[in-house]
Design brief:
With 192 residues, this protein is of the alpha+beta class. The chain has a single domain, classed as Gcn5-related N-acetyltransferase (GNAT) (Aminopeptidase, 3-Layer(aba) Sandwich). It has 6 helices and 8 strands; from the N terminus they run αββαααβββαβαββ. Strands 1-2-3-4-5-6-8-7 form an 8-stranded mixed beta sheet, sandwiched between helices. The longest helix has 16 residues.
Length: 192
């Protein structure tokens, strides 16, 4: 095998490939577009949403959304940050698989007006199923602030297990907050 073929083979094992379009029962998960900026800004300007995320400042505006979208749509990142959309392409949230220093991390958020409908369990389950097909030997890490019981319940349903607890700084809260760390191996994944 020549060096170029070996390098491409190793690279494929380290990344899941381009961000896919995934169709679930009620949702379409797709790569982001710059046109999603207004919907993202509207959702993340809501403190009830942003307070559950570590890296989202308050206030959050359209320029913050555009700055994030430019990185996501550049094609330079190995990450998957998929827009969660309803059948009529209304952007209602995000599910992301991000490569961080210690491995692949699942993150997500949903516009508050779509909570309690099972959308996030459906979306995260669909993304993890596709991710594990492409990366069958990778452990996925996640977690949630300790007061985010809905998120921890989603992770439990999917098969994540608690591995640690500590504190993480929340930009929206502007303080440290108790955080639960979780992980999921492919063999423990439970499709909802």
């Amino acid at each position: 095998m020549n060096a170029a073929v070996v390098e491409r083979t190793v690279e494929r094992r380290l990344t899941p490939g381009p961000c896919p379009v995934i169709q679930s029962e009620r949702l379409t998960l797709r790569p982001h577009r710059l046109a999603d900026a207004d919907a993202i800004a509207s959702s993340l300007a809501d403190f009830k949403v942003s307070r559950m995320l570590a890296c989202v400042p308050q206030p959050y505006d359209r320029q913050d959304a555009l700055d994030w979208l430019i990185r996501q749509t550049s094609g330079l990142l190995p990450d998957w940050n998929l827009a969660i959309t309803t059948g009529d392409d209304v952007h209602i949230g995000v599910v992301g698989m991000e490569l961080q220093r210690d491995g692949w991390h699942l993150g997500y958020w949903l516009n508050r007006y779509y909570w309690d409908r099972g959308y996030m369990t459906e979306a995260t389950g669909a993304v993890l199923e596709r991710f594990f097909r492409r990366m069958p030997e990778v452990t996925v890490y996640s977690g949630a602030f300790a007061d985010n019981l809905a998120s921890l319940n989603i992770q439990r349903k999917l098969g994540f297990r608690i591995v640690d607890a500590g504190e993480v700084f929340s930009l929206a809260r502007n303080r440290m907050a108790p955080h639960i760390d979780t992980e999921l191996s492919p063999e423990n994944f439970r499709r909802p």
